[in-house]
Amino acid sequence: MRLWSVHPRYLDRQALVACWREALLAQAVLAGATKGYRNHPQLIRFRAAADPLAAVGGFLRGIADEADARVYRFDRSRILHDGDRLDGIAVTRGQLDVEWRHLMVKLTQRSPELAERWHDVTAPDPHPLFTVVPGDVAEWERAR
Question: What whole-number distance in Å separates Cα of residue 120 and Cα of residue 140?
Answer without folding.
Answer: 28
